[in-house]
User: Fold these one by one.
Assistant:
Number 1:
Amino acid sequence: MGIRRKGRILAFQALYAHELSGMGLAELQNFSWLDPEDLERIREESRDFARLLVAGTLEKLADVDGTIVRQLEHWDFSRLNKVDLAILRLSTYCLLFQQDIPSSVTIDEAVDIAKEFGTDDSYRFINGVLDGIRKQRES
């Protein structure tokens, strides 16, 4: 698994932890919620990338959430599965504010993370929402 993939997974987990516990940025970025042995196995480059993604996502959370809400059809934002929400927030941040990463890479990574951590239907839902954001951004 690549450095950035591990960083994205770590960032997703941090955003999920934030949603459940309300942990602050400093605590999220030092990964105190992760087992120390697991953290040791993650390269520093992956941790740095995760820190960047978490900080950016939380800094732009109002913009990110607003973009997600505009893409939801017949679905209430407050009813989103917390795993799906963390993946959507991370990926929406990347689509909106990390222009150097191709949209297709961001969406593919989100779908893969959803397949690993989400429900059976999460990846289809996430793909649809993110593709809508991509189309809106490109128009």
Number 2:
Amino acid sequence: MTLAALARDVPTKFHSLNLVNTGQLSQLPSGVFVETPATVAGGGPQPVTLNLPARVAEYCRGAAELSHRLVVAACERRRKELRAVVELDPTITDKVAGWRAVEACLVAHADLLPRYA
């Protein structure tokens, strides 16, 4: 759908797109990925600016930091960043077991993944 909107240059509204925060959520850091409504046409996505309630923004800041650190870990192939993601992720309650699981995945898929230093 997004490609069709770009190719045909027909403005198409989306309820949610993963985009880099360029100010559409001013309460969150610039440069992190966020999900926001947007209109897409030939010129690319135009995100809708939103104002989050303070309690929601606080929760979203943590989720945005977690996602950003995961992207950094993958792009820079840094084990230390992967470890930080495990430590920050509130859904991983047993951090030791969580880190062991990440390491096991890296070993199991070493033939497909780049090497993490």
Number 3:
Amino acid sequence: CIRDRSRAFEAGSHLSYGYQQRSDEMTSVGVSVTSRGLLTLALVAGAFALTESVVWAGAMMALAGGLTFGLFDLRRLGAGLREGDAPPHPSLRNVRRIAAATLPLGGFALLMSLTDNIPRLMLNSESGLAELGVFAAFGYVVTGAMALTRALDSAATPRIGRALADRDPALLAERVRGLIVMSSMIGAAGLILAVTVGEPFLRVAFGSEFAAYSTEFVLMAVYAWMVLVFGGLTVALVAARQFRVQLIVQVVTVVVVSLAGIVLIPEHGLRGAVFSLLAGGAVRLVLTMIVVLDVIRSLREPSDDLLGSSRG
């Protein structure tokens, strides 16, 4: 019940973000996303520290979502509903069109989750729960990095979409480049922190057992950097509706991670698991960059169907 309320508030906020994206009011979206993250962290950490109860922590997560929705997003959602276009008449044809367009995105999301979990399954089988626990904890480096750039990607989406709609390759290249630079700066800052204070941080936060894996922690920060840049490139592909090619790239990534894991994890354990992610992340990043460059190149050609289909 608590989880459902939290998801309901989050869905309401996302509807508000959609209306704000249409009018290019991205500052308020950034404020809302940042406030939600900070408020959730403070309330959940405080509740768990005081009660050590997952139920109270979940209740505080729902409260954070409700406060953010009520204070930042509800009024803007109401204004968007009043000023927006009339919703399309529901029909089976519209449902089929939406499903056909978005089905590759569902497969993409499934394979994204599978990419991170394949090394975990192999590591559990080959090395046991101890190294699996360390690997799972290090995985939150990627989760935290993605949370930092979520507002950045949301702000860039309508601007990149406008450059695509105007068929302006120079403007699209400039905006994609800016997004990549910002994502890279965040990734570089995280990597510098991992190299300089990673070992003492792990010792203080988790204990000496985790500090022994400081090299793997640095390597995971490199993977997080790759994920951040990949996220920026994905914004351009989503705006261009290149859903199927995203799915194909992710299939290749899963294959690479699986093969690398089969070769590396039995011999190298946790480090092999991280290297398998790095191999898959590098291949995914290169392939996605090639596709984005192809999208930019296609804008110079006389074509009307770039934004009218979900083909690769």
Number 4:
Amino acid sequence: MTHWWDGSQIYGSDPETIQKVRSVWRNGKNTGRLLPDGKIAVDVANRKLRYDSNGLPVTGFHDNWWTGLELVHTLFHLEHNSIINR
């Protein structure tokens, strides 16, 4: 477990989660292929988080999930990828 200010709630704090967050997802399944340029998994077309086959959001931390966290994580994911695109 790491401190909140390192961004681990978005990016993950262990290699497995970091890999999952930065991978290409198809139909709720991780392809294992990394997204280009350090991007993180987000459904850009629908402006929402990706979800795994268990219905959990693909993010660094999803315990105690609620609508407010959904909004903040979605905003951070979209903004992260937007900055990379510049």
